[in-house]
Design goal:
Shape: globular
Number of helices: 9
Helix content: 25-40%
Strand order of the largest sheet: 3-2-1-4-5-7-6
Number of strands: 7
Order of helices and strands: HHHHEEHEEHEHHEHE
Distance between the termini: 75 Å
Radius of gyration: 25 Å
Strand content: 15-25%
Structural class: alpha/beta
């Protein structure tokens, strides 16, 4: 009997470390990655301190204090943008128009559950008849927190304004927060800007380099899908030599169209 008890104690002392062994590190890392992807955490900074600098150091609220009732890009650009919104934003969905103004570029015939606007000038936003509500916030100086619940929008849009963001990583993370899973973020821009208010990392770039920069903004936030760069929404591009020449001439004669698009967590399949 004493021998049996002795053997039992030895077996228990050997077995106990295995019962107390923690979960494998690899499984823990996988769980952390899933949580991170869901939370929209910032995994890296894209811009250096010098990249965020502007030539005009004055208060943005002062710069935008007077309403500008004009469009900053030509009609051809805006036509493509409206077509892209028609393609990417589901009818009946909820839309957040970040850096909005006095006019909407959403398709007039499409009905949405709600459209919320954000901008720097209340008078401009009040004239935008498509907005159900709006708020004014300086994203370069104030807390980057939108007046919206988590996972509350099907789409977020930002038209010709991304070049002014000095903290784009934080803004894109906040967009991720308010997007529903599968929701789309559409960032559009051209070569026009208030040069003195654009950040250094943007000002003297090319259309290609700016597209890559916006892709990096998306990549800085865990959980966005691989961003897609769109330069023409009219259909399949003509890849013939003549087609490429015609497209080049068209883009040099007007405001070239660029949009970078990504989704939260996954890209939904639409009919």
């Amino acid at each position: 009997t004493s021998i049996i008890r002795f053997v039992t104690r030895i077996m228990m002392s050997v077995a106990s470390p295995f019962r107390a062994r923690p979960a494998p590190a690899r499984a823990t890392r996988r769980h952390a990655m899933r949580v991170s992807a869901e939370s929209g955490s910032i995994r890296r900074q894209v811009l250096s301190r010098s990249d965020r600098a502007k030539l005009n150091l004055g208060d943005d609220r002062t710069f935008y204090a007077s309403p500008r009732m004009c469009t900053h890009v030509d009609d051809a650009f805006l036509g493509q943008l409206t077509t892209l919104y028609r393609q990417k934003i589901p009818p009946g969905g909820s839309v957040f128009d970040m850096c909005s103004s006095w006019i909407s570029h959403l398709p007039e015939e499409v009905v949405y559950e709600k459209v919320v606007g954000h901008g720097m000038n209340a008078e401009e936003l009040a004239k935008n008849g498509r907005l159900d509500s709006f708020f004014v916030k300086n994203l370069n100086m104030e807390e980057i927190k939108f007046a919206a619940e988590d996972k509350s929008f099907d789409a977020v849009t930002c038209c010709v304004s991304v070049q002014y963001l000095q903290k784009p990583e934080e803004v894109f993370a906040e967009v991720f927060r308010v997007l529903k899973p599968g929701g789309v973020f559409i960032v559009s821009f051209s070569n026009r800007m208030f040069y003195e208010k654009a950040v250094s990392g943007w000002r003297d770039g090319t259309g290609y380099s700016r597209s890559q920069l916006v892709k990096e903004y998306f990549g800085a936030v865990e959980g966005f899908t691989k961003p897609e760069v769109i330069t023409d929404v009219t259909g399949a591009p003509d890849v013939s030599l003549l087609g490429k020449l015609q497209n080049f001439l068209k883009r040099t004669q007007g405001d070239p169209f660029y949009a970078v698009v990504a989704h939260r967590n996954f890209k939904p399949v639409r009919e």
